[in-house]
Design brief:
Rossmann fold; four-stranded parallel β-sheet; alpha/beta; single chain; binds D-glutamic acid
Length: 254
């Protein structure tokens, strides 16, 4: 059982930013990464559609005998984590949420942006986070439509990304203590974001999700001691998407 895969799922390539965090702390595990790029982006879709896509992908991964499922997508988590827990009671299913807590802890009374998809920002999970931390800091929800598509095309750190983000982020330049990257695609544009918001600290949820996965596996006695492996799969299964997945996995510091 220990040697079974940890499945890491995202609407596309963004979850690779979480896979990298998992590999940092558990390089000896075997990972099966599955990105649903054929259906990305999820963020502008109705919640019921994202729930169905997530349940379908989870079902396919569960059938492959995985030991844990990491939903490395804030959008899919917001839409489907309840349905997943109901469908797979007793299984390890770890979701994601925008890293508002660490940002609020570090900047009490500060101004914190949360950049995420339309779906994430309109769903209950985010409303819950606002209730918990909205009193501790001033939260600014920020939507960045089009950025997921650029990351899917391998253009997260490009002039096109900078042109897209400039009008969205410039009004916040010098005004935010922190920006939470509440979508797993966004760390792949973090250099562009950092240039547009100098002096703003960036937070992403990958570190917390990886730590939570490690805790759950340890609690169930399911940590594996290697040899580690990473399998990259994608619903579009084109050579380009697989090559880009491998490139993002190796990308410089994010
Ligand atoms: N990577 C996903 C997230 O963390 C969303 C991308 C999409 O819109 O498909 O929210």
């Amino acid at each position: 059982m220990k040697e079974r895969y940890i499945a890491v799922f995202d609407s596309g390539l963004g979850g690779i930013s979480v896979l990298r965090r998992l590999l940092e702390i558990m390089p000896q595990e075997r990972y099966l990464y599955y990105g649903d790029s054929a259906n990305a982006p999820y963020g502008g879709r109705p919640t019921s559609e994202v729930r169905d896509l997530t349940l379908a992908a989870a079902g396919m991964l569960m059938e492959r005998g995985i030991k844990a499922l990491v939903v490395a997508c804030n959008t899919a988590t917001s839409a489907a984590i309840g349905a997943l827990r109901e469908a797979y009671p007793g299984r390890i299913v770890v979701g994601m949420e925008p890293a508002l807590k660490p940002a609020a802890d570090r900047f009490p009374g500060g101004r914190v942006g949360v950049m995420a998809t339309e779906l994430t920002l309109r769903e209950e999970k985010f409303a819950g986070l606002m209730d918990r931390f909205g009193g501790e800091c001033q939260v600014e929800p920020i939507c960045a439509p089009g950025l997921v598509e650029l990351v899917e095309a391998g253009l997260g750190e490009s002039e096109a990304a900078e042109a897209l983000l400039r009008p969205i982020l410039e009004p916040y330049a010098g005004k935010l203590d922190a920006l939470v990257l509440g979508c797993t695609h966004f760390p792949f544009a973090s250099r562009v974001i950092g240039r547009l918001l100098p002096g703003t600290a960036l937070f992403d949820g990958g570190v917390g999700t990886a730590a939570q996965t490690q805790r759950r596996l340890a609690r169930e006695g399911l940590l594996y001691d290697g040899p580690g492996e990473v399998l990259l799969e994608n619903s579009s299964m084109t050579r380009e998407s697989l090559e880009l997945s491998a490139r993002l996995l190796r990308a410089g510091e994010i």
